[in-house]
Every structure is written in C-alpha cells, then in structure tokens.
Amino acid sequence: MSKSERPNQLFRNLNAKIASIPMVLTALVVFVGGTAWTVLYSFTNSKLLPRLNFVGLDQYYRLWATPRWLISIENLLIYGVISLVFSLVIGFLLAALLDQKIRFEDTFRTIFLYPFALSFIVTGLVWQWLLNPDFGVQGVVRSLGWTSFDFNPLYNSSIVIYGISIAALWQGTGLIMCLMLAGLRGIDEDIWKAARVDGIPMWKTYLFIIIPMMRPVFITTLVIIASGIVKVYDLVVAQTSGGPGIASEVPAKYVYDYMFFAQNLGQGFAASTMMLLSVMIVIVPWAYLEFGGRRRV
Amino acid sequence: MAANGTSVSIQDLSLNFGAVSVLQTLNLDVAEGEFIVLLGPSGCGKSTLLNCIAGLLDISEGRIFIKGKNVTWEEPKDRGIGMVFQSYALYPQMTVEKNLSFGLRVAGVAKDDIAKRIARAAEILQIEPLLQRKPAALSGGQRQRVAIGRALVRDVDVFLFDEPLSNLDAKLRSELRVEIKLLHRKLQNTMIYVTHDQIEAMTLADRIAVMKGGVIQQLDAPQTIYNRPVNRFVAGFLGSPAMNFIEGQMETGTPAVFKAGDLAIPLDRYDFESAGKGGGPCVFGIRPEHVIFGEAANSMPFVTDATVEIVEPMGSDTLVWTKLGDRNFSFRVEAEKTLRNGDPIRIGFDPARASLFDTPSGNRM
Amino acid sequence: MSDHAISLAAPHAAIRADASGPSGPKPRHVFSRRNIFLYGTLVVVALYYLLPLYVMVVTSLKGMPEIRLGNIFSPPLEITFEPWVKAWSQACTGLNCDGLSRGFWNSVRITVPSVILSIAIASVNGYALANWRFKGADTFFIILIVGAFIPYQVMIYPIVIILREIGLYGSLSGLVIVHSIFGMPILTLLFRNYFTSMPEELFRAARVDGAGFWGIYLRIMLPMSLPIFVVAVILQVTGIWNDFLFGVVYTRPDTYPMTVQLNNIVNSVQGVKEYNVNMAATILTGLVPLVVYFISGKLFVRGIAAGAVKG
C-alpha cells in the first residue's frame, strides 16, 4: 500500500473542517444534544439536581394542572394575537405611508425604528413609568380635571397583558415596518405604472395586487413575530415581574423560575418542552412550505 | 382643435429633476395610425418621454395633446392610452383573464362588454388557451402577449411600448417583432415604441426619433436616418457594423476635396446639405456595405489600394478590416470571397453615398 | 414624409396659438387633503414613538419633589444632573451601592470579547460553507439554522451543566461562550450568504495562484467584506448589550451585565422609589445601542433586515 496514492477522505479539505468545528459542536452538542437532554429529563422527577428517575408524563399532568401555567399560556395567546395583528397592520400601514415618496423619509424611519435598538428591559421600565397610575398617563389626565379617568393596565390583573403588549408594540413595530418597506420596495415599479394606466385606485392596488405579491414577506415576518412571541420574558420581568400576583406570567418566566428558584427542574423541563412544541407548530409548516415546496418547483 | 390626423402632439415639453434637465423643450407630432419609434442609448430620455406621454411622470413645462385633447394634467387612465412594459408588469396572483379584465372591472364596465373585449383581444393575440393560467406558468413571449392584451382591451387610440422585447431572447424577439408589426397593420392604432435596439427601430417604424441627452436629434423615415444622418451621433448610433469615420480636412475648390494624410477624396459627387461649403476640419463617414471591392471598384469615383488586416466571417457575409489613411477601415464582402491576412486588395466607393460632418458641431455638411 | 420633418421644427400653428389650456406641471397644493392626511398621520405617530424617550429624559433631569407634584410630560423647572450621578455611581442593588458603573463595565467586558469571538468564528465558518463545501457541512448548517428557532429556555440548563463541568459557570468567559454559540446561526448565515454572492472566479484565481484556506480568507475575502463585518458588529453589539436572559442565568451578582443590574435597581422593593434615578439609569443602559443605532443609520437597517428576513 503506497501512502501517497490514495488521499484519505478525512483529511481532504481539512482546514474547512477545522473551521467548522465550532458550528458542528454547537449544532450537535448544544442544539440537538441540549434539546434532547431537556426533553428526556422532562420525563423525570428531577428536583434540585437532574436525576434520571423516570415518572412518565407526571410533570406534564402537573404542569397543566398548575394555575400559573394556565395563566401563562392564556397570556401568551392574548399577547401573541395582539402582537401579530397589530404589528402586521401598523407595520404595513407605516411602511405604505413611508412609501409615498415623502420628504423626510429617513427621519421618520429613524424615529419609528429606534425603539427596536433598545432592550426589552429598558422598554419595560420606560412603559412601567409611563403607565404608573399616580404619575403617568392616568395621573396626568386626572390632574387635568377628568378625575374619573381610568387607565391603569399594569395594576389591573384582567388587562395587565394588554399593558405589556402596548410596550411590545412600541418596541417592535419599527422592525416590521422596515421589513414591509423592503418588501414594498422590492415590487417592480412597472406594476404601479400598469395599475395607474389601468385606472386602479391606490387602495385597491395595495389590497388586490401589492399585498398578494408580498405573500413571502408576510410569511417571513409572521415567522419572525411568532418566534419572538414565544420568547417573551425580559419585558414582563421589567414591566410587572409577572404581577399583579401572577396575572402577567408567561411561559418563559415559568421555566426560569422553576429551574432556578423553585428548585423543581422537572417542571421547568416540561414547561420548556411545551414551549419547544409550540414553536414547532409554527416553524414546521412554514419550513415545509418554504423549503419543501421550493424543491418541487 | 388639433389639425386633422394628428394623434399625439407634444409641445415645448421640458422635464427637470431639480437642477438636472432630462428633456429639453421637446416637440413631436405623431400622425394618426403612425408607428413612431423613440431610439437612443440608455439615459437619453426616451423612456422618460414615454412616461410623460402616459402621464406617469409630471412634466415641468409644455403641453401634451392626445386626439386633439389637452391631457397635460389628466390621469393616465383618462388619456386614452394603453401601455406595455419591459418587465410585463402582469399581476402575478391573477389569471391571464383577470389580468386583462381588472382595469375594466374597476372602471365598472358591463360584464358582457368585458367578456367581448377579452375574447377579441385573446383572439387577436392567440392567447385563448392561456386565459385561465397565471403569469408564472407562461413563457416570456406569452407574458408579453398578455401584456399587450391588457393594453388592447382598454380600447384606446394610442399604444405606448416601453422596451417591450428587451427581456426576451434574440429568437423570440425577432418573432414578436413581426407580430407587433402585424398587429399594427391590423389595428391601425397610433403606436409609440421605445427601444435601444436599432433593428427593432428600423423594421417597425414609420418614423424614427433618434434621441440623445433629452433632445430629438433626428426624426425621419428609417431609410433617411440610415442614409442621411443629420449628425455624427446618429450616423454612429445606427448601423452594425458601424460606419467608418475618417477625420481630416476639407479643402475648397472645384471640386472640393477631403484630405486626411495622403488620402484625398474628391467631393464633387457629394450632395451638400447647405450651400456654404467652407473648408475646415471635418469627418468623412462611409458605411461598410457601401465600399466596393475587387474589379468592380475600378468603376468607382474613388479607388485606392490597401492590405487586408483582419477577416471576420459573419456567416451571411464577411467583414474585412484594413487601413485607410492610418485609420481602421472596414467593409463587407460576400461570404464566398476568400481573403487572407496580408492580401493586397483594391477598394473603392462613391462619395455620393458618404456622409460628411463638420468636426466642431458634428452636424452633417 | 417631408411634411413630418417640418412638423418637428414647427408644430401645428393652430394648436400652438391656443395657449389657454393646461400647460406645464399639474398644479399641486402643499396643503392638499392627501398631504395633510399623510404628514399628519406620520407626525402623530412619530410623536407617539418619541414620547417615551422624551419622558425618560425629562424625568431624569427633575428632582423628586418636582416629580411628585408635577406631570411627567412637563419639562423640568429646575434641571438637575444629580439623578444621573447617583444612577452611575451610587444606586444600590442588594448590598452593593456602587451604581450602574459596575454593570456598565461588566457589559463592556462581556460585549467586546463576545462580539470579536462570535464574528471570528462565524465569518470563518461562513467562508468555509460558501467556498470549501465538504460532505455533511450543509446538514450541520441546517441544524444550526433550525436551532435558531428553538426557544433558549430549552437549552439553558444543559449549558449550565456544560459550563459547570469546564469550570466557567458564573464567569464572564462562560457568558462570552454562550453569546458566541447563540450568535452563530444568524452570523454564519449572514457571512455565508455574503461570501456566496462574491464572484466565484475570484476564489478560483486565488487558488490557482497558490493561496490556501487561510490565505484566501485573510488576504482576499476579509479585505473585500468590510461592510458585512460592520453589519455583523452592529448586530452583535446591540444584541449582546441588550441581552438579559443569559446574563441573569450565567453570571453572579458581581458580574451581572448592565441590563440585569438596571432591572434590579429599578425593581428592587427596598427603600423609596427614586423615579428620576431610575430613568437616568434606564437611559444610561439604553445609550450604547442608541448611539450605535444613530451612528450606523442605514447599516443598522441592513443588519436587522439581513438578520430578520433571512433568519
């Protein structure tokens, strides 16, 4: 056997393989391994430390019997619907307004987008202050003479999640606007001209031609918003710490609290596995449409 | 109001974007049923002019009349125009039929009328089998046909084409070129057609407007533009392979003579544009196909000997490069002629077929 | 055809004489209904977006007595910078009372190495994926991209165990590694797409010239891709600076990044609430990403668009 004749497959392109080691480790150990580990341990009764003592679906039964988890899920649904609907609608409307060849476009865009540069912590704290019942919006309106004015979302359990959504929309719609604007700018200028020659009013052009043409942008945006919704955590921590009581709890906070404070790892793992499941419900159909569909064409 | 037979009339039209002047005091009258081609290099303002006629761009000065009606301030839909775009601009999520009917439905045209118009357009363009398809399922040529159909159903007087064939491959382009010509013959509408392709311009146009820098350089029948270009730009822009240019000096006398180095071309047969044929620097231009080669050259008013430098066989004919007065000089010979590099040859031409341009102004002399 | 040629020079006199009709640009009113609606809406929305920033700044410049009496929207009667000083150097978290400055320097010590390490890894990785494809590389890449959508909560605890095993749990280095891991999907995608869009001939020419993997990366690719590196830096600086979850999970109180410390200052239940100090602290924390945002302008938009649309 001569050494030099047959190059070893393993050493071909060796440098590229070395350069990819961090990616391979991250993909296999952290993403696949970590996820599998958490899912596996969600079937155990681990408390302070992870232990492989399987108890079947016990943790899940308990999870879905815990009022705090149920409230978290309910909050996530409300918050999710509000975020999706309003950030898409407002984001698109702002983008459409900015797309009218207006003056100071850059200034307006800069203003609408700057909150996105701020962290959820900063956002949450600012809106906590603005919605402060004594000094914030409610206090100011009352001091103007309308003493019965009532706008106190952060201290009212039944609407606290809406108060959080206001802050989230303020922070996030700028990004949606930018994505929509990029989508609008990607539309062939001739389409607009053709619509004008055809005498189609602007709103009808948007509704029947432009928005259907922007379907891929909408889908991508939807996925981005949706995957952000499930992760919501810092905003709640900063704005209400889950309060009043447990009225504004969200799943991500449930996971964190059970893992690192309640010393009930099993519950934390089960809850995080549920989060994973909910993301997959969004991602898998999208990935199938996006990538599975493309292969067929 | 307008004189009979004028379909589109553009008067003193100017367009400025800030300090940049895109179109300058432009005048153009298009007769009814005429096929006008706006031809020029990119950035010459030809598409801009078309967009102004369509009402898609606001003009800075001047007026636009269509069918005798002042439409300067009218919306595009009220101008009685149909437009075909380079990128087709079909509405991608609608079927061909919906694409054709959308504008009519929005305008509130009666249903049976819409159906009638679509049927007619589909028949003329032979797209009946495609009506239920979406644009994505059509070939480039089919899409272009639908785009023309969208203009057709509007039942308008004037058709505007904005480089409609430049997204197609060469073979399809020449096929659709013929179809557009047939369409024009059938419909007898006024058509204004923008292109940078000189073959499209030569084959389609009743008259060509050659544009450069926002100004119409020459507006004439294709043959006139080709044979008697008004300036050096027009001469160089049209024709492939391009016209040979020799820079030199004109000496007055009887006959006047063009001189460049050792070269002396008598100009007694040249048809001067203006009487005042003073001397001075000028450019002599002659098209490669007007150069005669071999025995036949001896009968020409101007004959000279040269050496073959490069031979470029084109298939149908062959382009031969040589030197004339130290300048590269090309001429065409039949494909059967076999010439090799270094062969001594005799060439000649008739100065009557040449063009002479004043060097400072570039204008035809 | 000659009559046409004449008409170019002198259009029909009949039409020309009638100078009364519409001519020149269509008259447009600055205060048309369209413009009032358009700009009115934009200005109102812009004011809404600016309001929180304004209130933050105004509150931070007031003294507490004025805040208790007045209206959060009114400008300060007496400007004081004391809240800023206090927020920076005296605000308390738990037992520590050395202000936000500690969190600021922690964040700097976290952000700088994290940005460098994550971009170094991801750019080389993206380059390998774009130009030196090997068998199986795409599989790992797809796992990486899909992994970007997994909620962090699922992977938090296994990483705690890994960091504990290698003795980095609770240290800044541990957090740097975490940031590099979670920055990898988006950055790798960014660099891979960028390098793929560069002309393949360039890479081939360099190979013919004898350059190897690292030579091509350092001498050809790196100098040509400065813009994408800037985009990556913007993306990472704001992302890492704004992080809260990883900071709170993987560091101890004395190594808390600024966001965590800020939250502890503002939301601590002890003592009297000093809203002006809180707002000063909030602005201080938001300042770094805001400065990055306002300086980088369009590149920031490009960064998030690249991050968002393709991620």
What can you see in these coordinates?
The complex is a heterotrimer of chains A (297), B (365) and C (311). With 297 residues, chain A is mainly alpha-helical. Chain A is 70% helix and 0% strand. The model of chain A has no long low-confidence stretch (mean pLDDT 88). Helices cover 23% and strands 35% of the residues of chain B. Chain B is built from eight helices and 21 strands. Chain B has 365 residues and is of the alpha+beta class. Chain B has a six-stranded mixed beta sheet, with helices on both faces. Chain B has a five-stranded antiparallel beta sheet with strand order 13-12-11-14-21, with no helix packed on it. A four-stranded antiparallel beta sheet of chain B has the order 2-1-4-5, covered by helices on one side. Chain B folds into two domains: 231 residues, Rossmann fold (3-Layer(aba) Sandwich), CATH 3.40.50.300; 118 residues, OB fold (Dihydrolipoamide Acetyltransferase, E2P), CATH 2.40.50. In chain B, a hairpin with a 2-residue loop joins strand 18 and strand 19. Chain C is 72% helix and 0% strand. The N terminus of chain C is likely disordered. Chain C has two domains: 48 residues, no CATH class; 210 residues, Orthogonal Bundle (MetI-like fold), CATH 1.10.3720.10. Chain C is mostly helical. At the A-C interface, helix 1, helix 2, helix 4, helix 5 and helix 6 of A face helix 3, helix 6, helix 7, helix 8 and helix 9 of C.
